[in-house]
Amino acid sequence: xxxxxxxxxxxxxxxxxxxxxxxxxxxxxxxxxxxxxxxxxxxxxxxxxxxxxxxxxxxxxxxxxxxxxxxxxxxxxxxxxxxxxxxxxxxxxxxxxxxxxxxxxxxxxxxxxxxxxxxxxxxxxxxxxxxxxxxxxxxxxxxxxxxxxxxxxxxxxxxxxxxxxxxxxxxxxxxxxxxxxxxxxxxxxxxxxxxxxxxxxxxxxxxxxxxxxxxxxxxxxxxxx
Length: 225
Known about the structure:
Layout: H1 3-19, H2 23-28, H3 32-49, H4 57-84, H5 89-109, H6 121-146, H7 162-176, H8 181-196, H9 204-224
């Protein structure tokens, strides 16, 4: 498999599905035009991560093909959600499995092409998941278990809270570079004190652990690279 190509496209995918998908777009994706905008953002993100290779017809075909496939999968997801009337963790898993599976397939088929290795692409993908993805995954699981309707929210929307994003980013940085621990304490001590006093934090501790763990993984990748 062409691993460098895989990590480049995966970065575009997580950026489009988490960091570049605010609440307004999530709501718009109930319509075909909203899904088209989202798929277009994914295609544009791929053009950025593969910018050195846009002169290749094969790479351009990959970008167009994966964008079209992303659009088709998300149209199917939107249709299923409209029928069920709520978010489903299993639909979320299936959606992500199809997207990542298509990226794997392309990376296998293009294994003969030389794509420059850049160790930063994997840590950047993990950073996006750490900052944006953790709470979305957690709340989707919670909605599946309880049967409640999951209101769309992302790091760019109001439901998530900017402080939580900063905390997750700092914890990721702590895992990546231990020299950031003082900055982490500044953000985390007040929240930790409130937690021990009985203040409900909900998903926050889970996100803290996920962000720090992904930072440690990124540290290993960077040092190894």
